[in-house]
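Box 3.1 A note on notation
Throughout this textbook, protein chains are presented in two layers. The first layer is the amino acid sequence; the second is a token string describing backbone geometry. Keep the layers aligned when reading.
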Amino acid sequence: MRFRAGQRLRRTGEFRAVREQGRRMDCGAFMLAWCARPAGDPAAPARVGVVASKASVGNAVHRNRAKRRLRELYRRHQSLVPAGLDLVLTARASLLRIDFAEAARRFAQACGKLQPHA
């Protein structure tokens, strides 16, 4: 299942806005950055962007696997993310070394701490 355009961050400026204006949380195997959507309906569903760099994760196979894992984490737990937020999930190499269940636990725990801010 793919995310529709309204469910994901698509432009570089959207990623940059989350990183520069938002807050960050270190979840060990991945970094979670979030901010409230700058304009529009605060009740709109959350959007997500996934990043896996060559420097932090490795070759293309590892980057793609890490991105698939992060997308699946979000897909399974998107109900825990407050509406009106933009999220950026940044993979680290350790994401591929831990069990998916452990990564899901960390993501769910992080989602419990998310709060929209202006």
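The chain has three helices and four strands. The two ends are 31 Å apart (CA to CA).
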